[in-house]
Amino acid sequence: MYTLKTGAGFDSAHFLKGYDGKCSNIHGHHWSVEVIVGNSELSNEEQTRGMVVDFAELKRDLRELTDSLDHSLIIEKGSLKDKTLEALREEEFRIIELDMRPTAENFARYFFEKMKEKGYQVVEATVYETKNNCASYREDFK
To answer: What angle do CA 139, 132, 63 make, to 5 degrees?
Structure first.
């Protein structure tokens, strides 16, 4: 199988509601995202002949996803009181509510699925919350 890997990053804050430890407080990370895509054959189309996919498109599509989360407070839906959320929005803070707890593991699956929705045959997505700590997500090909 041929594989390509690209990466992008974003800065954001989050917290883990219900967590007994430091991560229960709002804190930030520079998240680094790596996505591996692959195929057993190379393209025969003129523009992409001899390629798995066009690196420029792969990088652009991942960057669009990471840019959409950049410099925001990412929270799990229902994790803040309505009054708190309202006050933060009144201050015009950029808040992104997701249907998941914002952990590295869930972000790995999030990026895997989002790139898959864009039409890529994703092999694996890895998200680093620090340079030494990361989580990966992969599925078996069907």
So the answer is: 60
